[in-house]
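Title: Comparing notes on inverse folding

I've been comparing how different people in this forum approach sequence design from structure. To keep things fair, I'm posting one structure and asking everyone to reply with a full sequence. Here's the target:
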């Protein structure tokens, strides 16, 4: 399956499933993607980031298997283990105004491990769809410059944003609140 692009407003989301399977996300999930992107748009307009409101935004989301995510983690983070989500931002941070930003901003790439997402969905009593959305939000926050590995204060800031965005999407789609998050 080749990458599919979902565009809503000023944000484009490229989606690919490297395992070449028909993805659960693509089966009538236009509403899911539009709700996710609309929620990200609301966040981008907040004072938490310095992305110009007129800028066109693009990012890439790839679902992959354990071998691919472990290989990426080993190559780019020097951690030889499977992980749930990896983000590769093109900007150091978009949390504060740091000079000129072009009218078209490519945020970067997010990779989500399908098997880890399935395990965590069971653990948190979520659907696989909900867990992939949760991990996508997490990855997007990393693309914007948030990093929970930089200390407790940063962790609190990032996870507060993550939960607010996830709750907004859940409210819009009629999801119940997850356990253990």
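Reply #1:
Here's my take.
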């Amino acid at each position: 399956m080749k990458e599919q692009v979902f565009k809503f407003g000023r944000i484009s989301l490229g989606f690919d499933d490297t395992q070449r399977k028909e993805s659960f996300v693509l089966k009538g999930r236009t509403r899911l993607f539009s709700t996710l992107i609309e929620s990200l748009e609301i966040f981008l307009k907040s004072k938490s980031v310095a992305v110009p409101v007129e800028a066109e935004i693009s990012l890439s989301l790839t679902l992959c298997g354990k071998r691919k995510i472990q290989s990426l983690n080993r190559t780019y983070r020097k951690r030889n283990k499977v992980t749930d989500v990896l983000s590769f931002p093109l900007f150091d941070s978009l949390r504060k105004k740091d000079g000129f930003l072009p009218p078209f901003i490519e945020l970067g790439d997010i990779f989500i491990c399908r098997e880890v997402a399935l395990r965590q969905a069971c653990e948190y009593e979520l659907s696989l769809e909900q867990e992939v959305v949760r991990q996508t939000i997490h990855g997007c926050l990393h693309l914007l410059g948030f990093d929970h590995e930089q200390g407790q204060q940063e962790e609190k800031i990032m996870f507060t944003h993550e939960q607010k965005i996830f709750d907004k999407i859940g409210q819009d789609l009629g999801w119940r609140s997850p356990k253990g998050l």
